[in-house]
Amino acid sequence: MHRVDQGTEQMIRSVLAYAENRLRMNPVPLDRGELSADEMHGRLAGVIGDRPRPPDEVLGVYTSVIAPSVISADSPRFLGFIPAAPTKAALLFDMLVSCASIQGISWLEASGAIAAENSVLRLIADEAGLPGSAGGCFVSGGSAGNLSALAVARETAKRRGATGRLRVVVGTDAHSSIVNTLRLLEMDALIVETPDHRLTAETIRAAVPESEADIAAVVCTSGTTNAGIVDDLAGVGALAKERGWWFHVDGAYGGSGMFARSLRAKYDGIEQADSFILDPHKWMFTPFDCCALLYRDPQLARATHTQDASYLDVIHTGDGEWNPSDYAYHLTRRARGLPLWFSLAVYGVDAYREAIEVAAQLARDTAELINAAPQLELIREPDLGVVLFRRIGWSAGDYDRWAQQLHSDEVAFIPPTKWEGETVGRFAFLHPDTSLELVREVLRRTE
Ligand SMILES: *Cc1c(COP(=O)(O)O)cnc(C)c1O
Fold first, then answer.
1. So what's the pLDDT on residue 320?
2. Which of 225, 289, 291, 329 has most ligand 1 atoms within 8 Å of CB, for mutation?
3. pTM of the complete model
4. CA separation (Å) from 435 to 359, 376, 404, 412, 430?
5. CA of 416 to the centre of ligand 1 (A)
6. Which residue among 83, 161, 205, 359 has the highest number of C-beta atoms inside a 10 angstrom radius?
7. CA-based angle 435:344:97, to the nearest 5?
8. Cα 80 to averaged position of ligand 1 atoms, centre (Å)
């Protein structure tokens, strides 16, 4: 299994040929799962057995059964949920990180990888305006980032004397992972109703009097997953400071928007964050799975997350050394920030600013098309890359049929969403190659 024999040589050629072919595709096919669960299990049954199998045969199962049943989130036609659009450089380097088993656990084991990852975290922290002492690590995704950050918020509140069950102020449009995190951490969500879906200092002041105790933190979203709305970071950050709350900013989807000049002002106040997350696997064009997690004061994170074991003592020695394992709930980790490091270096930060801008501009252009179409209504001017719209007279079933037809025709993947209880259409733009022409075709089908 570890020797490079003739069979291995052939396998290297086959797998790399497949990978090369995929890397050269521009665009990738949208794909969709056509097999039922039973058919799928049937096709995969017995592939793993006690005896060996020719690699090309198993690769054939992958290419004929598995790959086409995975919708390509990195297709420019993928306009649902939050799309992906990894750069070619990031994809290539992700392969290298795997091939070389590059881990990023401790400075002792992986100083080079960690220093490179930290230079990317530094870039993000600088863009946000966080102090030079800020730092953190890359984790698998926004959910893991939110959990790790809010664990620090809770432990910090306790260390400052809080006892009993703690609460966290969140807006109604906070991501589902926040609610999940609070449940796991045994904290309660103090949900503030936001009349226009944007959490502001004013709404919090009205809903949460100063006398309310046991509040550990407040969470802002920049921006919301469903509609791309950036909360009032400046106001809420100042209020958090005034009340002594931890200020967490969930920028898993939209945090990267601050790199686009036309959007930067929406992020004013982010520099006050005690913790901040951003998913490069969303709007910063890396492969899955990658979330940047930053703390204003990393010392507080270490006090929460450092694992203590006699065989780990050796990694906790020198000054100036940085152990990513100390800043989140994890120990072993791949150096998942390296593909972004490579890609940023290869293309330059300006190319990122421009590519992020493209999606924001497409959202604004799409809003105009919707405003001009008599059968459509724009629900809200887009803040970032998400556009919500209503087709006058349509029921939930109409949206579903429209979306399914678009998918089966391989035109676009654009599942509807809900807005204030009503089913509506939703574009999520992220891929720089998604065209206004495609948008026109999708909208034409609502006529
Ligand atoms: C996607 C998202 C998350 C969760 O991130 P994962 O990487 O999917 O775990 C959290 N918050 C927001 C705002 C998101 O958009």
1. 73
2. 225
3. 0.97
4. 10, 20, 20, 11, 11
5. 19
6. 359
7. 105
8. 14
pLDDT in tens, 379-435: 999 999 999 999 999 999 999 999 999 999 999 999 999 999 999 999 999 999 999
Distance 384 CA to ligand 1 centre (A): 15
Q: For residue 52, give the 3-state DSSP assignment.
A: coil
Domain boundaries along the sequence of the chain: 6-30+33-70, 96-347, 349-444
Cα 269 to middle of ligand 1, angstroms: 21
Give, for ligand 1, the residue of 197, 253, 277 to mutate: max count of ligand atoms closer than 8 Å to Cβ: 253
pLDDT of 194 higher than 70: yes
CATH of the domain spanning 96-347: 3.40.640.10
Over residues 275-292, the pLDDT tens digits come to 999 999 999 999 999 999
Integer CA distances (angstroms), 418 to 173, 301, 415, in order:
12, 36, 10
CATH fold, domain 349-444, is Aspartate Aminotransferase, domain 1 (3.90.1150)
